[in-house]
Amino acid sequence: LALAIVTFALFHIGARALRLIDLVVVSTVIVFSPLVLRAVFVDYSDFVIVTAGVAAIVVALYAPVTWRFSTLLGVLLATMCIANVFAVSLSFFILLARMLRLRENRERLRDFTFIAASGAMVVLLGWAFFRVRYDIANVYGPTVDFVRESSKIHDLLKSPRRQWLRYRLWIYLPPIVLATAALLWRFKKAAFGRVEALAFAVCGIQYLFQVWYQFGRDGTTLEIHYYFTYAIPPLLVSTAIVLYQLLTRCSPRAVAGIGVAVVLLWVNDGSPWRFGSGLQALIALVVGGAVASISFDKVKVLPAALLVATFLAFQLAYPKNEPLLSGEQRVNPGYDTVWTRADSSGRDVFHESVWSMSEMDRLGNAVEQRSGFVLAGGPSYQLGATYSVEVAKPRHWINQPIADPGFDITSNSLQILRDLRLPYVVVICAPGELPAVLADLAAVGIESQKVLLDSTSTVGSIAAQVHVFEVTDAAAHG
Asked: Which of 1, 17, 20, 469 lies in disulfide reach of 448, CB 3.0 to 4.6 Å?
């Protein structure tokens, strides 16, 4: 569904191109790019931001100005903000672009009224649904608390250095695409109208905002891929606009050749090579740009092919040898593994997640809703994240790295679990770590009276164990 929505939006942008081959190739390049596929299949928040974000930009700038599309825009913007509060910036910039698209203040007021009303209705219905269906007084409460406390939270994935700037090449795609558009406009090689200028503005302002937040607010909006996600929707739209302009200059056979090359790259598990360093990527970018400029009118397919190559290479061929300090966490979004069929740890984790959820379903909701969940190393965090989306089930979650090397479970975390006085405990851990986990639990008075489930599974390189027990009467009550 997500890929279909993005494809439909891209088709709408290029509807004036008239050639079906242009629409198909642009959609293939963008929809099946690692940036999109990782977002859609890895995290629900990224899934919503990318899908709703692309749709919102297209509705705001390309759809007819009617109350129906204004209402749809309000729904999309509110959905993004609910998925993650950090999407407020992108939603605001899209809304601003929508207002600038309109010419008269009366039209803007009418349009804004429908957008605000529909957005508020989505927020209100979400609050009411979770209150009635799941007895959660305010589903937005934790988000509000997080925003209040976020300035005090230090992300453990954040590096104390800035060496990552030379390795995470995908963060440079927005300025590359915008610079390409600016050069095409400056030398009158492409015709961009008011709508296209607003789309580029959204891309540029959102990117500058994330640069400012990264360095001005000590954030992670460039450094960590799932916060960079908020720059992806306007990047995709801007890339599509520029590609359409470049492809319309080419023959249908040349455009089809670009599409075939992308499909072959995908079928053959992505890029067979990598840049040795960020400097090599910069040199390749400069040389490619110079060649495209010189041959722009002679070899018309070359500029489009080089933009596609850059767009994919900066996702797939980034350097992997980023040196780390002792204790520094490695941040790898796995863009290069999105197309990989063999040895895919992500695919293995997915199968393990399906397995763990089916195992837990054997216990029934009565046990699940009265259990304390303890994550303890291995793939437990991924399995726990997948399972915790089922809001009707676990109500008490302890995300504690009990068995991870270098970490010791704190008595405070276990005391919280003990004080909840739950009748059941679910441990998700790597096989072999269970005895240490149970010992730590017993040390604070959480002991097993009866084992309800003990199951182990191994898929590829990923192994996990789910252990569920009933707590002794002395430590729990039903």
From this structure: 469
